[in-house]
Design a protein that fits this description.
The complex is a heterodimer. By secondary structure, chain A is mostly helical. Chain A has two helices and no strands. The chains are: A mainly alpha, B mainly alpha.
Amino acid sequence: MNINATLIGQSITFFVFVWFCMKYVWPPIMSALGERKKLIADGLAAGERGKHELELAEKRAKEDLQTAKAKAAEIVAQAEKRAGVMVEEARTNARAEGERLVAAAQAEIEREVNRAREQLRGQVGAVAVAGASRILKREIDAKAHNDVLNDVIAQI
Amino acid sequence: MSTEALTSSEYIKHHLQNLTYGKLPDGNWGLAHSAEEAKEMGFWAINLDTLGVSVVLGVVFLFLFRTAAKYANAGIPGGLQNFAEWIVEFIDTSVRGSFSGRNPLVAPLALTIFAWILLMNLMDLLPIDWIPQLAHMAGLPFFKVVPTTDPNTTFGMALSVFFLVVYYSIKMKGIGGFVGELTLQPFGKFGLPANIFLEGVNLIAKPVSLALRLFGNMYAGEMIFILIALMFGGGIGVGLFGGVLQWSWAVFHILIVILQAFIFMTLTIVYLDMAHQEHH
């Protein structure tokens, strides 16, 4: 309980300890703490940035998807329209072809009929002349009455 | 009780006596074997127990923290590093909160004060007879384990802090500023004697209160442990009751131990902050 030279000893010890602490203990720990603080802050910032970028990418992907969908719908619509047009065209063509064929057939028929008529007409003329000449064998001179006969033939 | 022949009062006195090395009445240098002998040694004597225990504890503290500091990096901290960083961060927060100036000394000073006083105070929680008994077996007449129950320790630290306060006051404000603060406040230059008296008391009160607060708390705590320890000699019933009391007081004392270390540190920071400030 007496105050003695221990007082001085303790003071010296104290200052030595403080000096040591100030020189070798405090700065490394504080710098490590500061570094870690910076590291954590950087990490957090990077995380935040990544999150933001993810959001942007998601938004972009959504937009892309929508564009693609719209384009696909457009293409389908165009294709449908074009298919309709093609079918219509084909139908028109077919109808025209059919009509043409029918018309050709009719013309052919008409031609055949005409030819048959011509033939018939000639034959009828010949038959009539033959019949008449057989009846009028003597009276009718084929040459003299040729005009009349032709006239008859034309009337048939 | 350490020795069966001791009376209660002798037991108490024995526990309160430091192991003092100095000049004996016969002219030789040696250990004092009684309180009277220690007293007669005067100022030029040394309390070996106080100095030894405090140096060992200080070295333990610095060794632990130096180890942590050596391996400190920004990666994932291990157990020791984590602990050291926790303490360092706690001190740093306290210093930032109370100290407005810029001085690289203050934070390490605060850390040293806190950790060292805490360790010295913690010695109080050792059962009070263990180490004196060991010392007795080793042939030493006395051994006081808790350095902070020796006023030499508390005054040594408080005077060191006081020295720093005066040093930084003069360094920051100049001799004139420091003297002016002592003489021209609070009543202006016409109240000079009153100013000197008030500010002088104010200045001197800092180290005295710092030292006596710590010493008083630890000394009283130690005294209560000693008194409780006396009950162990009073039969089984009283002894068991004493055990319960000792345990409760130890638990309560943990609070005092930490609180006193913290108060000493905080007041040191505050005093140094005042020393750095132009007006307060």
